[in-house]
Design brief:
The chain is an alpha/beta fold. It folds into two domains: 234 residues, C8orf32 fold; 122 residues, Serine Threonine Protein Phosphatase 5, Tetratricopeptide repeat (Alpha Horseshoe), CATH 1.25.40.10. It is 55% helix and 8% strand. The chain has 17 helices and eight strands. A six-stranded mixed sheet has the order 6-5-4-3-7-8, sandwiched between helices. Helix 7 links the parallel strand 1 and strand 2. Helix 16 runs antiparallel to helix 17. The termini are far apart.
């Protein structure tokens, strides 16, 4: 039996209306803000970064509360015009996701490196030592823009960039850290530090500990003064803090804007596995001024001791936003992905990425510089996974192929460190002696430390199995 055309039309319209109603009910924008907020908190608790930002945008649209995301006047003064303009955007996008992934990387590395000790000084030493082993001093491209995540993925950076990398990891571990410049000729706030040395400063208990990220060695341990600056200082001159010192507070720009603080404090709550998304500049300022002068910041001003925000992170953020960031092909992105996996997951992850790095190197497609870096990363991954002999063979092969390559000194230092861990004293001493360039000071320091230790025999080796 045939239905009249009008009847079929009515049926079609009814079905279409029903589908539209179902679709309207499923559109996220029509969910109540309370429902969206609950889903956002669930995503934060499980560390689903993309979902957190998606729900944050949906919540903003549903509630229409855009004003709460705008930076305050004080924040705009601190972060500058570009970052302030960017910080006014109420919506979260790819740049925010990249920021959360950087915080996730820092937190993962820091948690693993500091898990075995509760002493702040030991935590600072563990982080500094690990960064020295995984990030080389870049003397070839000192003007390259790099944040701490870039330094970790590229395996190199300038003195100031490496110091900033240590700061990012230490702050993620809950330890106050900053860049320090002592004496005349301090770098400007926007300088990368490529031409001068910036030091890493940490507050460990009642001391300011200083490290030289270029040389790769501790510099001094300066006790924090407990007397007013006007009182006589009877300590030996070597134990007194320098009269002129500038503390550069190093932040990722996103850490100082309202929108991220609103996201993690008012809306989503702490995001699992993510480090310090928001930091308090005023608290940091007072903490470091107190360390410098031995008195609360108010009324303890000294023109020779200052605490200020380092502008370089904001400068590179502006350049990255304007240019769209560096374009990287798929092969290099794969290298970054493998490197990130190894850094995030420690020895287990390092063992898993080694085959992928080997395939990437053998397949070709990497530029010469990236291929050299991949070979160093492969050796590090194997040694991080406990395969010292395999890692040292990789380093030996690299040095044979590139006796004057840009990674030469880093490879020599890594090999000597591995030999020392294997208790092969003579090989370690010879390796340290061969290091030249910026990290020669670290090699000499490690060599002296090894010479001062009592000689211990290497572990016994198993006899070869009979055929």
């Amino acid at each position: 039996m045939k239905h009249p055309r009008s009847f079929r039309l009515v049926i079609l319209l009814a079905v279409a209306g029903l589908l539209c109603l179902v679709g309207w009910m499923l559109i996220p924008a029509h969910r109540p803000p309370e429902t969206v907020l609950l889903k956002m908190k669930e995503a934060a608790e499980t560390g689903r970064l993309t979902d957190v930002l998606t729900y944050a945008n949906e919540f903003t649209r549903a509630s229409g509360d855009y004003e709460r995301f705008r930076p305050t006047e004080a924040e705009e003064h601190i972060i500058g015009p570009h970052a302030a303009s960017w910080g006014r955007q109420p919506h979260f996008g790819p740049a925010d996701l990249a920021f959360l992934k950087r915080m996730q990387l820092y937190r993962s590395c820091a948690a693993r490196l500091t898990a075995d000790t509760d002493r702040p000084a030991d935590k600072a030493e563990a982080v500094f030592t690990w960064v020295m082993d995984h990030v080389a001093v870049d003397t070839d491209t000192p003007t390259a823009d790099r944040c701490p995540a870039d330094c970790l993925l590229d395996g190199r950076g300038t003195s100031a960039q490496i110091a900033w990398t240590c700061v990012a990891l230490l702050e993620s571990a809950g330890l106050p850290a900053a860049l320090v410049e002592a004496g005349a000729g301090a770098v400007t706030g926007s300088d990368t530090g490529g031409g001068r040395r910036m030091r890493l400063g940490t507050l460990a208990g009642s001391h300011i500990r200083l490290y030289d990220p270029t040389a790769g060695t501790p510099v001094e341990t300066a006790p924090r003064p407990h007397t007013p600056s006007s009182a006589a200082d009877t300590r030996p001159a070597a134990a007194r803090p320098p009269r002129e010192r500038t503390i550069w507070l190093a932040y990722e720009p996103e850490q100082l804007i309202t929108r991220m603080r609103v996201l993690v404090v008012d809306l989503a709550g702490p995001i699992a596995g993510v480090g310090q998304v928001s930091r308090d500049y005023v608290a940091d300022y007072r903490r470091w001024m107190h360390a410098l002068t031995g008195a609360p910041a108010a009324g303890a001003g000294s023109s020779r001791m200052q605490v200020t925000v380092w502008l370089y992170p904001f400068d590179i953020h502006g350049r990255t936003v304007r240019t769209g960031g560096e374009r990287r092909d798929s092969t290099v992105l794969r290298l970054d992905e493998l490197r990130r996996q190894a850094l995030m997951t420690g020895p287990a992850g390092a063992a898993e990425v080694a085959p992928g790095l080997t395939a990437l190197i053998d397949r070709g497609g990497l530029a010469d510089d990236d291929r050299e870096a991949a070979r160093i990363f492969l050796a590090q991954a194997r040694m991080d996974a406990g395969r010292m002999d395999a890692g040292r063979r990789d380093l030996a092969a690299y040095l044979a192929d590139h006796p004057t390559g840009r990674w030469r000194n880093h490879a020599l230092l890594l090999d000597a460190r591995a030999a020392e861990r294997q208790r092969k004293r003579d090989e370690a001493l010879a390796g340290y002696a061969a290091v030249t360039g910026p990290r020669a000071a670290r090699a000499r320091w490690l060599r002296r430390r090894l010479l001062d230790r009592p000689v211990t025999p290497p572990p016994p080796t198993r006899p070869a199995a009979s055929p």
